[in-house]
């Protein structure tokens, strides 16, 4: 018999405070597992001892799958680990403290109460609540002992993502926004749209107690490949029919668009977009997560721990083979135990939602234990060989002759890949270098031993590889050395000044024919358009060093450059009677600056005026100027302002109003674009007081 619907008081404020869920804006109870919450309800007329509670989740709740629990009011937990204890009762209502087990599946639960009087029982639905992971609780797989780290990796809505290249690290802010609006519901929908759920909903829901399962599933769902997931990748350099990946400033707009469109993949993302969206989803669910940037990141497509780059005789970088070296790549680390591998592999786990290679037939990657990567334990689950290669692969540079199909090794480097691995500091807007957590010092005996161990485990030591260079090729010594030096500023809108420095290492004169090219590239080093080429013959006296100035004017590169603002400069030096020498440099240009001022003290629910100023640094007019502003707790959604064209060297100043909704340290993110400069990003810390 169904009883009348009782009225339920979920004690939203008190429970949220206890469970670190106050930042969610929801009328539904949101709590963390393994911790008690209070609920009060009326409409039960008989003693509390006769009450039986039912908590259930998923489409086919069952006790065996731990997706259904029934428990009475007593001092002991039920077989499924749930328990209820009486807090207080009055003739008309009863307050109960309910505890879930540390390993309960996360997600939306229905709670009902069954009461029995005079032999007949009736069940009343009390409503729904959402259960999340609990990094504050020592019994949880995601337990994080440091409170400051819980604050940063679960509760912080602002992040900094590092980009550029290893010679020139840049950064930009990102609004994860995991507590905004409807994001939690969207995260729950993501889980319900995965391939795993579609194949077997009940089993999928029963595995949602396990962060390593969910991390893997969500790494697949954040990219659109295979499953109509959240973001569609595009590395072509043209982004018609969607947004340029560099233009996003937060995950909220992406997740909302995905839902609004009826769950059609959002166009377009590149690695940091996938990583940032995955950070939002995992932090929202309560799994401590951060973004990691790896500079000179290897994409080893054929699993031989080696990446090959090919150049022609003119110095053009050829797109040959599936291997590549990206200027940077962004992935995630999430914090949880590895009961499947043992305690020494617990802690930070690598997850990567960028669709690079299939794993188990779909585009997903991880969790790979960071400790396993450092120790070369590439036979451990999941996807350790691919991640190990991203930070450790050896690099081979080849000359390829398309007429004959012959390739000649120019040089090999074992210290090139995996540099300045970076993440945001806890509680500060600074960069922290975590390279040592991924590998032993470059060139040290331990590092080479680990590399050999990994090769051995992958069966590469004993296998003849016809594509590998011979020991003689690797040992050969060039007669000259070269490098590109930057002379002057690296800024879009200014001429690019470089020096090619060549040094004769021998004690007899050398004649060198040099072919030089400059190409605009994507951050993945994919060549897009040729900017400049030149050649020269030079004679170097014994042991002589010479510098050759190179200038690439702004009007030469302005039409060719991509929104990644990267240029690869290459010189192939053909030494008479000697081996070729390759000199290359990847250059990341900076955008001009933009300035934000908050013109008065920021107070909760009070208007505050912000001024954004930009000066056009070039001697032609800039048009189609748009300013985009966002920031959790400072303004809802995204503010978009159109700005009139700016003449040469003209300064524009734009004012707008914010009404902060919550006190604390908040971040305002600004993105300015026009026809000559794409996505000039900056952020401002705003301290909001009550």
TrEMBL record:
The active site is at 271, 329, 352. Binds 1 Ca(2+) ion per subunit. The keyword DNA repair does not apply. The keyword Acyltransferase applies. It catalyses: L-glutaminyl-[protein] + L-lysyl-[protein] = [protein]-L-lysyl-N(6)-5-L-glutamyl-[protein] + NH4(+). Its cofactor is Ca(2+). Pfam families: Transglut_C, Transglut_core, Transglut_N. InterPro entries: Ig-like_fold, Ig_E-set, Papain-like_cys_pep_sf, Transglutaminase, Transglutaminase-like, Transglutaminase-like_sf, Transglutaminase_animal, Transglutaminase_AS. Keywords: Acyltransferase, Calcium, Metal-binding, Transferase. Ca(2+) binds at residues 392, 394, 442, 447. Gene3D superfamilies: Immunoglobulins, Transglutaminase-like. Its EC number is 2.3.2.13. GO terms for molecular function: metal ion binding; protein-glutamine gamma-glutamyltransferase activity. It comes from the Eukaryota. PROSITE patterns: TRANSGLUTAMINASES. Residues 263-355 form the Transglutaminase-like domain. Belongs to the transglutaminase superfamily. Transglutaminase family. PANTHER family: PROTEIN-GLUTAMINE GAMMA-GLUTAMYLTRANSFERASE (PTHR11590), PROTEIN-GLUTAMINE GAMMA-GLUTAMYLTRANSFERASE E (PTHR11590:SF36). This is protein-glutamine gamma-glutamyltransferase. It comes from Sclerurus mexicanus (tawny-throated leaftosser). The lineage of its organism: Eukaryota, Metazoa, Chordata, Craniata, Vertebrata.
């Amino acid at each position: 018999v169904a009883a009348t619907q009782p009225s339920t008081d979920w004690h939203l404020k008190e429970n949220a405070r206890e469970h670190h869920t106050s930042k969610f804006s929801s009328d539904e109870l949101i709590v963390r597992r393994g911790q008690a919450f209070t609920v009060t309800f009326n409409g039960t007329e008989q003693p509390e001892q006769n009450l039986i509670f039912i908590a259930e989740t998923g489409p086919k709740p069952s006790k065996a799958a731990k997706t259904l629990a029934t428990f009475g009011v007593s001092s002991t937990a039920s077989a499924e680990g749930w328990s209820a204890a009486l807090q207080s009762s009055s003739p008309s209502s009863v307050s109960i403290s309910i505890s879930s087990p540390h390993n309960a599946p996360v997600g939306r639960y229905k709670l009902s109460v069954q009461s029995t009087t005079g032999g007949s029982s009736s069940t009343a639905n009390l409503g729904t609540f959402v259960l999340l992971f609990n990094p504050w609780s020592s019994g949880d797989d995601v337990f994080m002992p440091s409170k400051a780290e819980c604050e940063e990796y679960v509760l912080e809505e602002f992040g900094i993502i590092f980009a550029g290249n290893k010679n020139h690290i840049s950064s930009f802010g990102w609004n994860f926004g995991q507590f905004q609006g409807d994001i939690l519901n969207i995260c729950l929908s993501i889980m319900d749209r995965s391939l795993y759920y579609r194949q077997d909903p009940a089993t999928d829901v029963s595995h949602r107690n396990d962060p390593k399962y969910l991390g893997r599933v969500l790494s697949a769902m954040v990219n659109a490949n295979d499953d109509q997931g959240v973001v569609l990748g595009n590395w072509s350099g043209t982004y018609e029919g969607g947004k340029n990946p560099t233009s996003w400033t937060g995950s909220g707009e992406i997740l909302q668009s995905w839902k609004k469109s009826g769950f059609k993949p959002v166009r377009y993302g590149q690695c940091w977009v996938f990583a940032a969206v995955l950070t939002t989803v995992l932090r929202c669910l309560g799994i401590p997560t951060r973004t990691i940037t790896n500079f000179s990141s290897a994409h080893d497509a054929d699993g031989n721990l080696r990446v090959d780059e090919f150049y022609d005789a003119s110095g053009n970088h050829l797109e040959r083979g599936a291997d590549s070296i990206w200027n940077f790549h962004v992935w995630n680390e999430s914090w949880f135990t590895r009961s499947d591998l043992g305690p020494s592999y617990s802690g930070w786990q690598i997850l990567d939602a960028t669709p690079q290679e299939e794993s188990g037939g779909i585009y997903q990657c991880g969790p790979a234990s960071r400790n396993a990567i450092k120790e070369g334990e590439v036979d451990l689950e999941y996807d350790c060989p691919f991640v190990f290669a991203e930070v450790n692969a050896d690099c081979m540079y080849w000359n390829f002759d398309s007429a004959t199909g012959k390739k000649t090794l120019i040089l090999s480097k074992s210290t090139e890949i995996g540099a300045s691995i970076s993440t945001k500091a806890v509680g500060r807007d600074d960069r922290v270098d975590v390279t040592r957590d991924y590998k032993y010092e470059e060139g040290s005996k331990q590092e080479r031993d680990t590399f050999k161990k990994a090769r051995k485990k992958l069966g590469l030591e004993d296998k003849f590889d016809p594509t590998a260079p011979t020991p003689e090729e690797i040992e050969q010594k060039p007669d000259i050395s070269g490098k590109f030096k930057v002379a002057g500023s690296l800024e879009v809108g200014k001429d690019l000044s470089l020096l090619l420095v060549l040094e004769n290492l021998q004690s007899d004169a050398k004649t060198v024919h040099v072919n030089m090219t400059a190409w605009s590239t994507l951050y993945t080093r994919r060549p897009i358009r040729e900017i400049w080429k030149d050649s020269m013959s030079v004679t170097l006296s014994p042991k002589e060093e010479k510098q050759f100035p190179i200038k690439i004017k702004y009007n030469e590169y302005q039409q060719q450059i991509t929104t990644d603002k990267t240029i690869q400069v290459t010189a192939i030096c053909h030494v008479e009677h000697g081996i070729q020498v390759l000199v290359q440099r990847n250059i990341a240009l900076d955008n001009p600056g933009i300035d934000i001022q908050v013109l008065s003290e920021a107070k909760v629910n009070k208007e505050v005026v912000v001024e954004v100023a930009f000066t056009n640094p070039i001697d032609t007019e800039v048009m189609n100027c748009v300013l985009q502003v966002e920031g959790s707790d400072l303004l809802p959604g995204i503010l978009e302002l159109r700005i009139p064209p700016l003449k040469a060297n003209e300064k524009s100043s734009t004012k707008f109003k914010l009404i902060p909704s919550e006190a604390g340290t908040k971040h305002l993110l600004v993105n300015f674009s026009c026809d000559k400069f794409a996505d000039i990003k900056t952020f401002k810390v705003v301290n909001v007081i009550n």
